[in-house]
């Protein structure tokens, strides 16, 4: 089955709203083994909407639309689909009753134009009743073509797809598709692909797809089978081979992130930590704070941006700063040791660098960063040379600091 996703709404075209629905639906359809060849955004214009839907059906078996199901005159997704299928729209009393109850429950007054939302296809339609808003969705199927129309707000789109559209589409599929993810740190996408190219080339089912996210690389392993259990069994040996090849670079599986993994390791190991940041300005500390309960082990985070702050708060020696400058291996070491000592933490992490855009020299260019890790009296400092804009350098440095911390915690375990 080939699919196209159409987002309806001028506000998306103008950039006022981010089209997160398309990302969500693409991932969900991929899990079902349904190929998405096109994603389209069209404004609230009757002619352009009609042209878009009719063109989409010329190249796809399935269309999923979001938006354009509201009560106003320019909400015409349903009407346009009905025209394509030659369907008459009639009032659905159940849908109308649910809309009326929604307005009563929320203490708002229902206007006459809201009745428009309760109009549904007379024959070839399935009404998707909305538990999170007013507009019901609709599935229409005729002559081998399917359109699933969903409301625009993500809080309505996602549950409606998950609970009603997804089961409908699953029944259409002979096979099930299952994906598992390996998350890889400190190895770029091209380098990772080179390391595992022979494994990728040898696969037909499961398939392996590498791609990059900011600061990490991803391997998605997807199997096609008659059941989820069979698919997972096909994936298992391939995943094991990839993990053996990539070793410690694989930091997690599934939908997670580096800060979650590190926070869990700190809590499980009951390791207290303090962080001293310069160029990253608190990004490492902020990332850890995202994890609930981290206050049990995160004692403090310091942004020691100036030399005076490094000396006063962390005990960095003036002679070290004078001799090596603030962006140096030696200062990073004293920062990590100082923050651990002054806070009483068992682990100290430090970052110092040049994020730019100015301030670099030939000897110490923009993008030069030193990350220090102090654990149980031992300090290691790692040098990185990043490229990119200021915030890209800062974010990459924060991610790599967390990755170095992860590896240090693994060594301690």
Describe, in plain words, how this protein is organized in 3D.
The chain has about 425 residues and is α/β, with parallel strands linked by helices. It folds into three domains: about 1-170, 3-Layer(aba) Sandwich (Molybdenum Cofactor Biosythetic Enzyme, Chain A), CATH 3.40.980; about 175-255, Alpha-Beta Plaits, CATH 3.30.70; about 260-410, Maf protein (Alpha-Beta Complex). The protein contains 15 helices and 17 strands. The protein has helices at about 10-15, 20-30, 45-55, 75-85, 95-105, 155-170, 190-195, 195-200, 230-245, 260-270, 285-290, 305-315, 320-325, 330-345, 390-410; strands at about 1-10, 35-40, 60-65, 90, 120, 125-130, 135-140, 145-150, 175-185, 205-215, 215-225, 250-255, 275, 300-305, 345-355, 370-375, 380-385. The protein has a six-stranded mixed β-sheet, with helices on both faces. Strand 13 (about 275), helix 11 (about 285-290) and strand 14 form a beta-alpha-beta unit. The radius of gyration is 27 Å and the shape is elongated. The two termini are about 50 Å apart. It comes from Anaerotignum lactatifermentans DSM 14214. This is Putative competence-damage inducible protein. Belongs to the CinA family.
Fold topology:
Layout: E1 2-8, H1 10-13, H2 20-31, E2 35-42, H3 46-57, E3 62-66, H4 77-85, E4 89-91, H5 93-106, E5 119-121, E6 125-128, E7 137-142, E8 145-150, H6 154-170, E9 176-185, H7 189-195, H8 197-201, E10 207-213, E11 216-225, H9 228-246, E12 250-253, H10 258-269, E13 273-277, H11 283-289, E14 298-303, H12 307-314, H13 318-324, H14 329-343, E15 347-353, E16 368-375, E17 378-385, H15 390-412
Parallel strand pairs: 1-2, 1-3, 3-8, 13-14, 13-15
Antiparallel strand pairs: 4-5, 6-7, 7-8, 9-11, 9-12, 10-11, 15-16, 16-17
Helix pairs in contact: 2-6, 3-4, 10-15
């Amino acid at each position: 089955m080939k699919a196209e996703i159409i987002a309806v709404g001028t506000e998306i075209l103008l950039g006022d709203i981010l089209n997160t629905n398309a990302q969500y639906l693409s991932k969900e359809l991929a899990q079902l083994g349904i190929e998405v060849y096109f994603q389209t955004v069209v404004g609230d214009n009757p002619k352009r909407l009609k042209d878009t839907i009719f063109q989409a059906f010329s190249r796809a078996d399935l269309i999923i639309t979001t938006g354009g199901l509201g009560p106003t005159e320019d909400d015409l997704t349903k009407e346009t689909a009905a025209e394509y299928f030659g369907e008459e729209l009639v009032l659905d009393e159940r849908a109308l009753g649910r809309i009326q109850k929604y307005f009563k429950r929320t203490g708002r007054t229902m206007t006459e134009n809201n009745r428009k939302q309760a109009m549904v296809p007379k024959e070839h339609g399935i009404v998707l009743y909305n538990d999170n808003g007013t507009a019901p969705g609709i599935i229409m199927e005729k002559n081998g073509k399917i359109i699933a129309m969903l409301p625009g707000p993500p809080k309505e789109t996602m549950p409606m797809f998950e609970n009603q559209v997804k089961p409908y589409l699953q029944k259409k599929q002979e096979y099930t598709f299952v994906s598992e993810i390996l998350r890889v740190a400190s190895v770029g996408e091209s380098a990772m692909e080179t390391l595992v190219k022979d494994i990728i080339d040898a696969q037909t089912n499961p398939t392996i797809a590498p791609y990059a996210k900011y600061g990490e690389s991803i391997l998605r392993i997807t199997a096609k089978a008659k059941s989820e259990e069979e698919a997972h069994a096909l994936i298992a040996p391939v995943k094991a081979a990839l993990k053996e090849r990539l070793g410690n670079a694989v930091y997690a599986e599934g939908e997670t992130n580096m800060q979650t993994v590190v926070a869990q390791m700190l809590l499980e190991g009951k390791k207290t930590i303090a962080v001293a940041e310069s160029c990253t300005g608190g990004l490492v500390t902020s990332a850890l704070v995202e994890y609930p309960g981290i206050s049990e082990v995160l004692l403090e985070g310091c942004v020691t941006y100036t030399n005076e702050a490094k000396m006063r708060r962390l005990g960095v020696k003036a002679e070290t700063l004078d001799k090596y400058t603030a962006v140096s291996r030696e200062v990073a070491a004293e920062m990590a040791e100082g923050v651990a000592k002054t806070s009483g933490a068992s682990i100290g992490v430090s970052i110092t660098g040049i994020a730019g855009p100015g301030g670099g020299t030939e000897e110490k260019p923009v993008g030069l960063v030193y990350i220090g890790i102090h654990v149980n009296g031992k300090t290691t400092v790692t040098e990185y040379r990043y490229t990119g804009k200021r915030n890209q350098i800062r974010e990459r440095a924060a991610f790599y600091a967390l990755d170095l911390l992860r590896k240090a915690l693994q060594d301690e375990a």
